[in-house]
Design brief:
Largest sheet: 2 strands, antiparallel
Number of helices: 14
Radius of gyration: 20 Å
Strand content: under 5%
Strand order of the largest sheet: 1-2
Helix content: 55-70%
Distance between the termini: 38 Å
Number of strands: 2
Number of domains: 2
């Protein structure tokens, strides 16, 4: 019986993470994604920790013991330490949805439908696992899209990096944890926006707080209000989630308050102006999603 395509790729790329060999930043047009010069890495392009200008080393990060305080979490303008802190803490659903939201923020730069399809598949996979065959197809096609973008416009770094961000959302042959995908997607989507726009990094921090909330504060112990009014609240939340109708969150807040919810943090978040995304911690709390 022949080997699966994923196993063949796994053998080709190797099972080790030799991340110390990575460059500070990949240069579009100088190498193809499929021809990685760095064996054992996620297509040869996992990013570095930008505060130290060196490749990311899991062993070193573990030895350093990455931690942040609650004050730092709420004020941080660089998502790198936040993601490091979430390693092993955030669920394998939350981090992929963060990656997807990063990509949707630069959606206009992903002009290739194969890249957009990869992001959409990653989003579906976060809630309902897709087949290995679908993942293999999306992985191949998104890498082809990136290689085509490099060949067609080698000087258009922004579009190339946007495509890199797209394929970084897909579960890969090395079966790396979601943490690595989130780090890679955050870096690439940052590079795709005006050559490292600091505002994009600040937005990514807000995005993490939108999805994870405040990890230093426990979830409310009393949620009996979810079952009141014939369980209307979860139904409203599910509709908002499925239709991306996050402009209706204030309505959810009113329904929560009427049902007896007195958690000011939940109510304030639902009424908070600005963009919300799939994975919003308040909606997930109502729906019982991790």
């Amino acid at each position: 019986m022949g080997k699966s395509r994923r196993k063949q790729r796994k053998e080709l790329l190797g099972n080790r993470l030799d991340l110390e060999q990575l460059p500070a930043k990949p240069t579009p047009g100088r190498w193809r994604i499929r021809r990685s010069r760095w064996p054992g890495t996620l297509a040869g392009s996992l990013p570095f920790t930008d505060n130290q200008r060196r490749p990311f080393s899991p062993q070193l990060e573990k030895a350093r013991g990455n931690t942040v305080t609650e004050i730092e979490w709420l004020a941080c303008t660089d998502p790198t330490p936040m993601l490091d802190f979430l390693r092993g803490k955030a669920s394998d659903r939350k981090l992929p949805l963060f990656s997807v939201a990063c990509c949707r923020h630069i959606w206009n730069l992903m002009t290739d439908k194969r890249s957009r399809a990869a992001v959409e598949l990653a989003e579906r996979h976060a809630d309902v696992p897709v087949s290995e065959q679908e993942i293999d197809v999306a992985w191949d096609e998104s890498q082809d899209a990136t290689a085509d973008a490099e060949n067609a416009a080698p000087d258009d770094d922004f579009t190339v990096y946007a495509n890199h961000a797209a394929y970084s959302t897909i579960p890969n042959p090395l079966d790396l944890p979601a943490f690595y995908h989130a780090r890679a997607t955050a870096e690439y989507s940052w590079w795709a926006v005006s050559g490292k726009n600091r505002r994009e990094r600040s937005w990514q921090c807000c995005l993490l707080r939108e999805i994870v909330g405040d990890p230093f504060r426990p979830e409310p112990a009393e949620v009996s209000w979810l079952a009141r009014n014939d369980a209307t609240i979860p139904k409203v939340a599910q509709s908002i989630y499925e239709k991306r109708a996050f402009d209706r969150l204030p309505i959810l807040a009113d329904a929560l308050q009427e049902a007896g919810c007195d958690d000011e943090e939940i109510l304030a978040h639902c009424r908070q102006p600005g963009s919300h995304v799939r994975g919003c911690w308040a909606v997930d709390l109502v729906l019982g999603k991790e």
